[in-house]
Amino acid sequence: MIKASSSDQASGLRNMSLANKTKVIAVTGGKGGVGKTSVSLNTAIALAQIGQKVLVLDADLGLANCDVMLGLRVEKNLSHVISGEAELDDILVEGPYGIKIVPATSGTVDMVDLSPTQHAGLIRAFSEMRTPVDIFIVDTAAGISDMVLSFSRASQELLVVVCDEPTSITDAYALIKILNRDHGVNRFKVVANMVRSMKEGQDLYKKLSLVTDRFLDVTLELTAIIPFDDNLRKAVRRQRAIVDAFPRSPSSVAFKTLAAKINNWPTPTNATGNLEFFLEQLVN
Ligand SMILES: Nc1ncnc2c1ncn2[C@@H]1O[C@H](COP(=O)(O)OP(=O)(O)OP(=O)(O)O)[C@@H](O)[C@H]1O
Ligand SMILES: [Mg+2]
């Protein structure tokens, strides 16, 4: 465990060998209800099923957040860590296949509006975390708030979840545009969700890339096509993840394919993709 005082927290973070290898992935989408939390949790569990140690940061204050979706009991959240009342390891909630979840902060704490002392507390909390993490998934809230933008720009990879509705496409476009124009992000990985066929997924991706190609200088990649799946809703009603409850259902198969792809993404080798970089970006 690394002990870092608030004054030498940055050097403490640089010493984190585990965190340096952590892949940080934000799951976003602009519009509400497109499946960000479903993608975050099911991909996390599918990664855990193939042996990865996964931490999910629930940065979504909405009703259907991670702990609710999995029927988990949460006592403390990130705000208790920021205020120094708890250590990060103590607030982690364990989900299926050993995934760990950092519960959402209460509505009173905005991650982008922290005082310098709170910043230091947050960085120290992550630098002192004893729980090993291979993959860190950040489930963001709906909309294009400062918090969503800062999580998105700080991550190594950004999954943009879209579904085949005009407002989902326009909201995803607006998010991509702001991240590109104001935050220099130029690579986006699209997840087409709730589609009725592979072709619908590809067409959806084409609709989005047609506008981004025309107006922005960004690279989009179609990373996953997740079919509409009644079993996913059934699983949500039972407070289970579909990859756990119905492992052979079409969307489960797609989540596992996405997890295998993520597993093959290169491990960050420099400061542009690890947990340290993520935290520095987040609080700067
Ligand atoms: N592939 C799918 N097939 C069927 N239903 C789905 C699929 N993906 C998500 N859903 C359903 O859509 C609803 C919204 O999903 P989810 O909560 O994951 O979205 P979200 O983007 O995280 O929403 P919010 O913006 O509120 O955080 C849920 O009821 C979920 O069961
Ligand atoms: Mg959500």
What does this structure look like?
The chain has 284 residues and is an alpha/beta fold. It has a single domain, classed as P-loop containing nucleotide triphosphate hydrolases (Rossmann fold). It has helices at residues 9-14, 17-20, 36-49, 66-69, 78-82, 88-91, 116-127, 146-154, 166-183, 198-215, 230-237, 242-245, 250-264, 275-283, and strands at residues 23-28, 54-59, 93-94, 100-102, 135-140, 157-163, 187-195, 219-227. It has an eight-stranded mixed beta sheet, sandwiched between helices. Helix 9 (166-183) links the parallel strand 6 and strand 7 (187-195). Helix 7 (116-127) runs antiparallel to helix 14 (275-283) and helix 9 (166-183) packs across helix 10 (198-215). It starts with 8 loop residues before the first helix and ends with a helix. Magnesium ion binds at residues 36-37, 60, 62, 64.
